[in-house]
Each structure stands twice: as structure tokens, then as C-alpha cells.
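Input.
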Amino acid sequence: MGLTIREIRLIEVLLRHPEGLTADDLADRLGVSARTVHRDLQPAGEFLASHDLTLVRQAGRGINVEGPDSARTGALEAAEKMRSEALTPEERRVSLLGMLLGSDEPIKLRALASRSKASIGTVGRDLDEAEEWLAAYGLSLVRKRGYGVQVTGAEDDRRQAMSGLILQDLDEAVFLSGDSAETADPVSAGLMGMIDGGRLRKAKALTREAVGRLPYAIADEAFVSLSVHVALMIERLLRGGEIGMDGEVLRRLRETPEYANAGELAGAIGEAFKLEVPEEEVAYLTRHLRGTKLRQDEELDRYFEGSDLEIASRVKALIHHVSEQTGVALAGDSSLYTGLLAHIERAIHRLRENMRISNPLLSEIKEDYPALFDLVDRGMEKIFVGDEIPEEETAFVAMHFGAALDRGQGNFPNSVLVICPSGIGSSKILASRLERSFPQIRRLNHASLFDLERLDAKDFDLVVSTVPLQIPNDSYVQVKPLLSEEEVGRIRDHLRGKLLGERPVNRAVSESLEVFGGGQEKLRQMAEATQLIAELVDDVTVERHEARGSIPEAVRLMCASLAERGLVSDPKSLENSLLARMELGGIGIPETTLALFHARDDTVTRPAFSLHDFDVPLELEGMDGAPMRVRRTLLMVAPLDISTVALEAISEISVAMVEQPSERETFENGSEAQVVAVLQNIFARYLRDKLL
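Output.
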């Protein structure tokens, strides 16, 4: 008879525990829910009956198997044989990696072969592949005769490998569904030997509470990844594995907004599992909170109040690059700008912290959009000098541009709800395809699987999802993010039936994304940008200082100048912010004698831009990581609570540094009048793009 791996494992657990187990006990051992256990008992009972055994369920005693020992032994052997035959070579290798990563002690080769239900020769070949896979995470595989096989390496690298193994095959939709414990089969998902099922469910609940306290929403896939990291942290702490962290990295993470959220989560973990959570583990949680992908919704603009000016300028430069290469005006697409800013800021953090991200659509994007992928890849290399951008990140960025290039090809008459757990990029590309294919769509709402619990599908003319939903099949259409023609046809049929059979609905849910409309709001934003530009140009100065090559002294002089002009209330606070920003990476502009000092501080009264010449060159690090000598510095500062519009406008200055050699030359050697003229040109282009 045909049984799933999960059902076979249930049979094995029951046969190995003649005393019986409750449904909750079985759920914890198998990493599924009690409801799933009850559902799997029927096929398990049929299998046991075929071996002259009886599955008995008794209130108070639980579930057990009755029958002669010989029959029990025969059934167990049959189940084990079925399980070994059910595993594909890839599943066997995943299972092997799970066993090795989950053990801190060496495992004998014969034991690995026995657990894998494979020959020693087969396991030896699997270990060759495992060694290569582990090396990508900085881990080594020790193989010694008489000693066994053991994974060695740093705790952080081990956790990265464990999470990578788990997440590569994890069914996110099932993980996020109401039957939350049924993540995926533990063998194929790489869970075996690494995370206890009960602890995984508790970690998921604690993570959900922590995410609810964040000031921004995260993508469903980010929640899944974060839950797995939290579960791994708990599991490893219980086994004595603690993260080591450099003191400077620890100090930097302490200063981030997410550190307080991580501290609350660590406290809840300590209380739930009776653990002492070291500060390094709080920083570990902080790092993963900061690395989460954001979800596009109405709260995203508020998140940008903390965005870095340099990253904002690089995003603008990337948009300029793609616009020039494609001939499509993208500079005025605020949805593209905010989506890229959300993703790239988190991507830069992941790169600096050596964190990996998975992109299940990578191969599909490279195959279906090769030209766009290559174009974005070249732009990323040009603008993010010195950073090795992995293809997974480039593919996500390409999805944002794909959505922007597709956008605007249709009208929007009706209301649509899009459920897409993969985050901003895939959600947007699906939305854009829908907009292009169905001109009757007027408003698009984006929601996660969590949001679906509080929404009513009847409030929308169309519900489109990239994953199966726990609602009637005739109330939504399941598609892929890269919408196919066949799927377009199915949606047309669905819409036709809706339009013929239903009256317009009362749309009770506020829209989280409107692609067109909002003319009055756009005018308000234009007025804000124009006012900001006028103030920036009026405040521009070129000053000379007699600093003696000391960077702290140079920073002090620049901040004192701003204070004298009433642009900063506490120059010392701004000094600290500027110096702290320098610690994050080089600020010198390669192939020039310029450096861009920039920071945001709550003592800055309004955005300001100024130039400062020094008699003695300053020696500092360039944006490409190379040392350089600087004679003129550009100082760009802004308040912490700067709006998205203001941030976008001021970042145009640094975009010009990258994109316009002639303007860069003026910034390097020009007079105050020449600099003002260049700024006027820069902002004129910006306003023209916004009006188009």
C-alpha cells in the first residue's frame, strides 16, 4: 500500500512505544499537529491491520498497537523498508546532512548507512557531496577511520547551514497555515535531528508576537525564515552551542532600533525554555530582524523615516541606470523607489553580516527575463562598488524593475486582493501582470496569509493567490507570480462569472496600494519637494578650514559651521552620527579628491548641503575600500524624521556623483556659484521626472 513518509514515521514511532502515546506526544515527536496525527491514523491503522496488528485508541491511555511481538517486528521491518525505498537520492542526502548538522559528536559511518538505509559505499559518495555543500557555509567535514564523521566550524556558520537546509524545501504555505506545526516532511525539509517539533511550534508563536511589535510589516517568507532561526537558536542553546560575536559588531547592533525588539524576544525565549540568553544571542536575533524582507503595505512609507541617505541615493542611481538603458522613464515611479529602498537597505545589511537569502524564483527569472536580469546585474556592480551581490538579491531587484516596466499598461476599474507570501518583488510583478492583462482592475490590495484571517474574500471582485488558501476554491484563483497566458484565461473565466452573477460589492477594506490616482496627494508632495529644494540651494556654502589632517577635527569644524547657521541644535550629537556612519564603510568617492559625509540626526533642524575645503588632505577610506586623500568634503545632513519625498529629493545630489562626470567635476573643483548652478540643474531634472 502507498504511504507517505510522514505516515510511515508515525507507524514506526507507535511500534517502538508499546506503552502507547497521546496524540500530543506523537505530534511533538513528529513535528506535526495533533490534528494531522489523527488524520494519519487511518492509513496507519490499515497498514498495521495488514500485519495482524490492531491500532487501539483509548481515552486517558492514548494510542498504542496491540498484537504479537513477531508481528510487531515484521511490521517495523516493512515500514523501514518502505521508508528507505521512498527516499530519493536527494532526500537521502538532505537527511544525511540533517543528521550530521544536528549532532555535535562524530557519527560512525556504519550508523549513517543504517539510518539512511543505504550501503556504506553510497553514503561515502553522499558524504563527498555533503563536504562540498558544507564548505560553502565555511564548515568542514571530518572523516576518520575509527572516529566517524563530524561537522566542525563556527556556531554561526553551523546555524546558517542548518537554516539553509531547512528552508530550501520548506513549504511556506503549509508552515503559515492554520495547521501550523505541519511544516513539511522532516526528511525532505531537512528537519530531522535538528529541531524538535514542539520547540519549533513554540518558537513560531514567540516569533509571531515579536514581529507584531515591529513598526513595519515583513513578508511571509521572512517570517518563516525568522521562525526557523529562532527555533535553531533555542535548540542550539539547549545543547550548549553559543554564538561568538566581535565586540565592534555587538556595539553596532546594540545601537539599532531592532535591538530592543530582539531583547524582548530573547526574554520571552528565556522564560519559556528556562534559558539564560547571552547578549551575543540578542545581537544574533537583532541581525536577523534587520535582515528580514519587508512587505509592501500602507506602513512602508513610515519605515523610510530611518533610511540611510547613501542607500537612498544608490537606489536613485540604480533607477537612473535602468531608465537610461531601457529608455523607459522610471524616476517618477514612487512605488518602484519605495519598494527598492525597502529591499536594498535590508540586502546591504545581509551582505555586511554575511547572511544568506534564498530566492525560489531565481532560475525562473534568469530564464524568462535574461536581458533584464543582466541589465540589473550590471547596474548593481556599477553602483554597489566593492560589494559582491549574490544572484538571489539581484533577481529580487530585477523583479521590482520588471514590475515597474510592466506597470502603466492598463486601467484599473475593479477591486482585487493579491495574496503572495514571497514579499514585495514577486507581489509587485504579479500585480503588474494583472494590471496589464485586466484593464477593469482599479485597485490592488496586497495581503499576507496572516491578513487573510481578518479579511473577507467577498469584499473583493477578485482574489488571486500564489499559494493554496483555506477558502472555497471557487472564491479565488491560484496562479504563479510570473502570470502565464493559461492562468490569464482562467482568471478571465472567473471574472466573467463574477460579473454575470454578482452585484458590485461593498469594499470595506482600505487599499494598501493604489497604482494610479491620488492627484491631490501628488501635488502636495511636489510642493514639499519644491520647498525643500529651495531651502537646500539657499543654504549651500563652500568654506575653507585650516584643519591639520584630523578627521574628528574636520568633522567638528563642519558641524560647528552648521550650528552657527542654525541648521543643527547640538553639533556634538551630529559629530557622533557622522563618525559612526564612517565606521560602516568608506565615504571617499573613487577617482576624485572628494568625500561624502552624510548622516541623519534628531538635532538637525532641516536638510542641508555644504562643501568644505581643507588645507591639509584628509586620509580616509573610499567607497571601494581603498585608502585615499581628500581635499574637499561634501556634507549632507537631514533630520531623523525626514519624509520619503524629502529623502528622495536630497538623494539626487549623490546620484549625480555617480551618474554625471561633469557635475562631479564641479562639485570637486567648482566655486559656490558653479555648485549652486549644478544643484539647480539636478533638481530641475528631478522635478521634471516627477511631473512626467
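The two ends are 65 Å apart (CA to CA).
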